Description:
Number of strands of chain B: 4
Helix content of chain A: over 70%
CATH class of chain A: Mainly Alpha
Number of domains of chain A: 1
Order of helices and strands of chain B: EHHHHHHHEEHHHHHHHE
Structural class of chain B: mainly alpha
Oligomer: heterotrimer
Shape of chain A: globular
Strand content of chain A: under 5%
Radius of gyration of chain B: 23 Å
Number of helices of chain B: 14
Distance between the termini of chain B: 43 Å
Radius of gyration of chain A: 20 Å
Distance between the termini of chain A: 67 Å
Amino acid sequence: xxxxxAVVVLASGVVYGTPxxxxxxxxxxxxxxxxxxxxxxxxxxxxxxxxxxxxxxxHAGTGLSLAAAVGVAAVAGAAMAAIHAFLVVTLRASQIVSxxxxxxxxxxxxxxSYLGNDLNLADNPAAHQFNPVFPASxxxxxxxxxxxxxxxxxxxxxxxxxxxxxxxxxxTRLGLNVRxxxxxxxxxxxxxxxVARYRYAHTLVGGAFAGVAGATFTLAITPQWVSGxxxxxxxxxxxxxxxxxxxxxxxxxxxYFFGALQALAPELQARNIQLGPTILWSNALPYVMTIVVLVxxxxxxxxxxxxxxxxxxVPYVREER
Amino acid sequence: MLATxxxxxxAFHPRGRFQIERRLRQPRWLTVAVPAGSLVFAFFASGIVLxxxxxxxxxxxxxxxxxxxxxxxxxxxxxxxxxxxxxxxxAAAAAFRMRLFNIGGEGQLYMGAITAAAAGLYFGGSGGPSxxxxxxxxVGGCAGGAAWALxxxxxxxxxxxxxxITSLMxxxxxxxxxxxxxxNTESYWRQTTGFNASVFPTSKQLPPSADWPAAVIHVQxxxxxxxxxxxxxxxxxxxxxxxxxxxxxxxxxxxxxxxRAAQYAGMRTRRKILAVMGISGALAGLGGASQVGDxxxxxxxDPNGLQKQYYGYAGIxxxxxxxxxxxxxxxxxxxxxxLQNAGNTLQGADFPSGLVGVIQGLILFSAxxxxxxxxxxxxxxxxxxxxxxxxx
Amino acid sequence: MVERRGAGGAPPTSAVAMRGITxxxxxxxxxxxxxxxxxxxxxxxxxxENGAGKSTLSNILTGLYRPDEGEICVYGDRVExxxxxxxxxxxxGMVHQHFRLxxxxxxxxxxxxxxxxGEGRRFRLRRRAIERQVAxxxxxxxxxxxxxxxxxxxxxxxxxxxxxLKALYREARILILDEPTAVLTPQEADVLFRTLREMxxxxxxxxxxxxxxxxVKAVADSVTVLRGGRSVATVSTAEATPRSLAALMVGxxxxxxxxxxxxxxxxxxxxxxxxxxxxxxxxxxxxxxxxTVCAGEIVAIAxxxxxxxxxxxxxxxxxxxxxxxxxxxxxxxxxxGDPRAxxxxxxxxxxxxxxxxxxxxxxxxxxxxxxxxxxxxxASRGPLLRLRRMREHAVELIERYRIAAxxxxxxxxxxxGGNLQKVVLAREFSGKPQLLVAAAPTRxxxxxxxxxxxxxxxxxxxxxxxxxxxxxxLDEILALADRIAVMxxxxxxxxxxxxxxxxxxxxxxxxxxQHPR
Lengths: 321, 392, 517
């Protein structure tokens, strides 16, 4: 039973979905503060390459190396995000162009490849990698075995992050403040909330999450470095935030859904199941569905309850005259 | 839903000593000096990155300029990169002028390539370049790109769905369609005869009459100016006239500035959105047709080929740097094309891969920062003579 | 008349003192060495025309702007506000004219937002505790509102109560209200004034910003008058009269806008609004409203803002489509929801939102003057624009209407409020319309500009146009209108003849007193 198509696809869905989830959570936080960051792909790649580099160069035990690698990846992602934050929050530049510039700067034909080549990271497998946490016996349990217990610690950490982000946004004072910043920065400012500081903070944290997402690729999924290893995951993460109506719980559902779709095509091929255009559909479905969700939200006027933070994408200026 | 990014207002968080306020008038010289200045700054900054990683920036730059413009055949190669960038740049400029953020140039280029290739395969025959076949390819390319752009256009016009995400998502769909047509199915575009066909999927070669001619300029050993490059220049001129001198362009200006004023004045907003998205998509699609007709002579469906060039996204960068002026966009496309070309040719120890992206990114960052100087003035305010005391 | 109580004999403590405050914006000196002082336990009004610098001064006091020069003292101590946070910490609370509320949040969430002490200081939000506290405060001051309601569900008056609750929750010692009665009926305003007097009696300081003389007389103990960015005088309201205050506001003896009688008989019907119902953001905004305007007459619609006037105007101008009923121009039905059809039928519309709807701010004045006429031969031939002709036409209009502008190529956003309005009016008039719909045309203008606009409206009527004037300013309406209709909750609830109208009756109708049941 554990070898059935469904179980395998779902288990792989969790694997592929984890970087999507990290990326989406980060972007969700940034967007909740009103900053659209299209540079997720670039931030992920930089996190991936720096995390990989740490694990290759740091001569320490597995646990410490991996922990350090994740930390470095987070910092690298945040550093990339800082550029975007500076441009859009302080200099009031266009968020779209800045995000795209970040992707170009840091992405597959940019800084990440530059570092990967310069540091000679290609061709070698990772010195350490994340392995499943639970013993093999538990992994063999029917259905839940591979899907739930067959995962590495990053997956479980992502679950914890979903809970933390959800609680943060809905139950804490800071979460209320950041939601206000994203909905109505004028109101937040008048209430003494430092709009710029919240936007910086959340954009940087978003970058950190993206960095960790990238490290998931090079340290867990395919533990090696290849230029452009994330393969568009950053863009899917952006779509995922919308698909999830800016809610962390739904990000989890969506991430695994998209991940499962990604796993579906190669599995079908491995089993020699030819379903013609299915390949096209399973690849394209996440994107088409995001469009459908978006149309639904904008057309139905459920905007108020389900929609984006109202001030998303708009620079905030206090002394507008 | 996603509010369109606006030009900000006057001041800064006046925490520091300086204040930033909006300029009332934008001096002409600034609009040229600042982009030029940001270019200089960007090269300076990349030089630092090179130095920091143990490379020699000066030799790197010299090689760059040589490979881009000076060496024999360099300009020809540069035009290969610059032509698609000009089209996607114009596509982005056409849409962004009206605050329609068409990020889908990438996918619209693929679609244009698909339809143009079909037209070429169908109408082409043996013999020299046929005006009929080429015209069919041009029309087909424009139609394919325009149709793909009309999807986010219709969604925006009728459902107010934000076009940024919809056009972005469709890029991926287009990419999968492109790959699918040759790699996963026996379609019209796929080579089905011959030895290789059964071993590895390839796309059909276009017949010779569908080859786009190139004008040869007898300089520097002869530069081939592809038809696409000429078409791009023509498109830039048409776009300029359209936006500056016609009623259509007037309405686009008003709509871009204030959609409410446009509605108030009785302008047909929906039609404009569809028309502008159509024009934008057609330009990108024409870029795809040029790819097929000028350069690849078949449909490049390889996931590591056309789809890794990111002409569509780079086009947005080009358009932003050219401040959405059609002629400036073409010029910038040429320069960035040179950069891409150099990046491709020079991969090696002195010129690490990824440097092109770094330089492009830095140029964009400094241009974005430079924008601030064009629109705002930095002023040093007199600090009030007060010493802050704990408020009551 | 609201009762007034003295401070109890002791000399008043200075709560707020602003000295020599100067603030510049690009192109305008908003505050010019302004002095302002308010005592604890008093209601102090800040009076001035639109553009006199009142809002700027209050924004400086609340930390939103920083003064270029001058100092601020709160209870005798010098302070420097770097941000609204500092002002809030100093005990200053503000009720803005345009509410600073987060729409999707509840009342309780808005009240506790950004609070650094009390419940807001906690890391974890305790919803029920906050809601209970909000309910307590709202009961104590009679500001009834459901703490769990979301802002977008509330009426404008209720939203204002939330703004006041925000300040009270923070135990603001100094409360600033910016034109609070703009969204209230006369009766609601009285309730507000009573609340403000109670707060003053508790020892708080209330600073009341207004341009309405009778309000200032009714509620304030003293008043500081601003004119042209300078503080002109500070007087006790007991000693001042509306005339003297008006004189200080304007700098010369001026009579309140007088009615000019004319011998014009109304011509044939130009506009006929036939039982239209129009949807607004929160349900039907206009219900079963009918109205006629004849050539050569000025019909005014009176009412507190937010009772459907904007939606009515937009329906007539074709920007909104009525759900029921129809609009007829000279007997012929105009295609609904189509601005171009309305324009062709002869409707000219001067919207209240000049810079947002009536003009394209980044485009040139010439372009804006051609905004509706660009399809005419004056501006284009076939698909091509005739740029030179457009510029000449603009120069002509600039001269004729005496618009103060650097030139036809200047950006519209550079102009002052009065000149913006002149551009809009010039454009609308030059189209030779049958009907002119003017929504709040004099809002935010100085007295000179107001007189000019009134002159234009009278000229329009004299030339045979029908004029539909929508305004909150009863004085303006009484001076200009031949007929007055009152809108309340989307319905036309009263019609009066302009010459014999009684303010009391109109006020009653505005508050729903004549609601037909």
